[in-house]
Amino acid sequence: MAGPSSYLRFSLSIFFFSFVLFSIFIPSWYHPSNEPKLRPKRFFPTSKSPVVEEPPRICKTKTRPSSQTIHHPLDPLTAQEITRVGLILRSYPPFESSLPPIHSLSLHEPEKPEVLAWEKGDPLPPRRAFVLALSSGRTHELVVDLGSGRVEAHSIESGSGFPPLTLDDLVAALEVPFASAEFNESILARGVLLSDVKCITPSSGWYGQAEEEKRRVIKVQCFDQEGTSNFYMRPLEGLTMTVDIDKREIVKFLDSGRGIPIPKSAGTEYRYGSVEEEVGCDSAPPLKPISMEQPGGPSFSVEDGHVVKWANWEFHLKADHRAGLVISRARVRDPETGALRSVMYKGFVSELFVPYMDPDDGWYFKTYMDAGEFGMGVTAMSLVPLNDCPRNAYYMDGIFASSDGTPYSQSNMICLFERYAGDISWRHSESPLTASQIRESRPKVTLVARMASSVGNYDYIFDWEFQTDGLIQVKASLSGMLMVKGAPFENTKNVPEDYEMTGPLVSENVIGVIHDHFMTFHLDMDIDGSNNSFVNVRLEKEETPPGRSPRKSYVKARRLVARTEGDAKIKLKLYEPSEFHVINPSRLSRLGNPAGYKVVPGGNAASLLDVDDPPQLRNAYTNNQIWVTPYNRSEQWAGGLLVYQSRGDNTLATWSERNRPIEDRDIVLWYTVGVHHIPCQEDFPVMPTVQLSFDLKPVNFFESNPILHAAPYFEKDLPVCTMAASF
Ligand SMILES: *[C@@H]1O[C@H](CO)[C@@H](O)[C@H](O)[C@H]1NC(C)=O
Ligand SMILES: *[C@@H]1O[C@H](CO)[C@@H](O)[C@H](O)[C@H]1NC(C)=O
Ligand SMILES: *[C@@H]1O[C@H](CO)[C@@H](O)[C@H](O)[C@H]1NC(C)=O
Ligand SMILES: [Cu+2]
């Protein structure tokens, strides 16, 4: 992997996106080369920023995985394999004259039974790549066999929608305005220097507008960079261009907000050194450093680059350009038998839906689908050691393909670490009343796999946290910058009567527009094997017959086994509570209960948009918080394989209309977690983290508490630190 000095060579490149990308500087690595080799693509902090100066410290016992050898059927494509796919495609007759841009290139995973049958030491199943290439507006879907060097399958996608955007698409779109006299004139008229202008590329969504049909379009909106490093806080409001990505021309030019002042730069800075200069630091005393120590070293290992073993858990962890982080074959050891038992075949974030709540010309289209439009992996930058992940973290890279088919590395994209946050995993004390001196308590130590995607202004941190009691907590945290709207007033008292506020004022002349975030997880649960059922365990009020009891009512649990997909479309309701179990009906405990895991919702939110509103149609998979589908390897992406400008004709919601049987067979659970975001002043200029989560929790999976035998800590187990100052 490249060291710090080779990063520096690319330090001029600024970029990366989401619903956005900026800058018309074309990074130095950007030129297609005939000789494919691994090049790092990185966001590089500016010189003032203190981050990423050193490579992360790797625990002594851990060696970095060699990304060049394949050990497991699910291992992602290596750089060599990606290069080879590019070569195979270049000599494939339909593409011989010119290779169309590659929009997606990743492992075509072997069929599930093959993976399940494979054991360490067995020969690996054939290695295949799944490729999406775009040629003359048509999406080619290819399966390339690396062993034979042949294209095994090639079809043209017929549904609506285009594959994820490439970096070339974004760079091309961002250049377009700068060749426009109209744009130049508007910038001048706003009193802004053209050299201070940088733009972003919000995706256009799909609204059936004539000028956007049958071509790939993207919006371009710009910001004044003068006096700030906070890209997003000084919008040139009202200037919105619709750009044809392939023809590289403006198809619609909207310029309405020249009268709206550009918000001031003061107070927008967020980089460490710069904030101090502006604010001073005479408020609360800073916290003294705190860290977690592992005097005996870590308890986890990463074998063959991707297989994580920790406590009673074992799973495969990899980076994916679209999903970001993928957990596969998660298995937990049974304390009674010592056997590894299957919990989940595959888990990842399948799609994100982020609709903004403003119907204006420059805003209505902001209804992002970040995974399928931009990719959660390609936007996941290097994690910042000591801050994004603790010192005891282990780091993993992502190896992805550029649009010319060459590999590049997203280094330190995933981190893995053990966490002790001072919590308790179980306890009990007896009081003097029970005449006992029992004080039993066990510390809770967990294992976290983490990634952080910076999809333009927003940052999404995804954690998969494994506990020794068998629970997996999935967390999605939001941070980063608000997407703000320039407003012609500085104070709420000056809001004109006829002005429609689409969010609160978060700074002078800055509105934080209300929006939602929905994250839909694909959870292919395999509880002790693939054939599972979904059970809605409803809590229902029972009324006692007169005379039976002093009580009038009590609550009973009623188990409803879902027979078809229609039975498992769940909208969460506080006054009609349920537990949602995935069980293996053939695997009964000694007491006769089926082994299961339940999905335990945390705080959540549902979309309030009209179901016929185009963005909601495209994201109809958010109409329910839970869906269950029969396993189908083509149904991985809740919003469809091709979501860019899609019309919602190929989503989890349309697949589910078939109402297929789901009882006692291989099923996939889909869970959506969401939040309504009404911005507030504290979200400016950078937003403190907001955390959403849900749990996957064993239910009758173990015969009894699986961590009954866990040992407590004793003084001798932990090093004694001398305190710098006494209390
Ligand atoms: C923008 O317009 C100004 C004034 O007409 C002109 O001098 C300048 O060359 C233009 N710049 C570009 C990049 O077109
Ligand atoms: C698998 O999913 C695809 C896409 O939804 C569908 O076309 C195909 O018919 C499905 N296969 C089965 C066996 O249901
Ligand atoms: C799983 O269920 C399917 C469909 O009901 C059946 O064909 C298959 O034999 C079952 N597999 C196992 C291992 O029981
Ligand atoms: Cu938000």
TrEMBL record:
What are the transmembrane regions? 7-30
Catalytic site positions: D370, Y458
Q: Which EC number(s) are documented for this chain?
A: 1.4.3.-
Report the enzyme's class at the first EC level.
oxidoreductase
- The UniProt record lists the Copper amine oxidase catalytic domain at 291-707
Q: Where is the Copper amine oxidase N2-terminal domain?
A: 72-153
Question: Which keywords are on file for this protein?
Answer: Copper, Disulfide bond, Membrane, Metal-binding, Oxidoreductase, TPQ, Transmembrane, Transmembrane helix
Q: Pfam families, from UniProt?
A: Cu_amine_oxid, Cu_amine_oxidN2, Cu_amine_oxidN3
A GO BP term here is: response to auxin
Q: Needs which cofactor?
A: Cu cation
InterPro entries recorded: Cu_Am_Ox_Cu-bd (IPR049947), Cu_amine_oxidase (IPR000269), Cu_amine_oxidase_C (IPR015798), Cu_amine_oxidase_C_sf (IPR036460), Cu_amine_oxidase_N-reg (IPR016182), Cu_amine_oxidase_N2 (IPR015800), Cu_amine_oxidase_N3 (IPR015802)
The Copper amine oxidase N3-terminal domain covers 163-263
GO MF annotation terms: copper ion binding; primary methylamine oxidase activity; quinone binding
Cofactor note as given: Contains 1 topaquinone per subunit.
Q: How is it modified after translation?
A: Topaquinone (TPQ) is generated by copper-dependent autoxidation of a specific tyrosyl residue.
2',4',5'-topaquinone-modified residues are where? Y458
Query: How the protein assembles, per its UniProt entry?
Result: Homodimer.
| Family recorded in the similarity comment | Belongs to the copper/topaquinone oxidase family.
Q: What is this protein called?
A: Amine oxidase
Recall the taxonomic lineage recorded for the source organism: Eukaryota, Viridiplantae, Streptophyta, Embryophyta, Tracheophyta
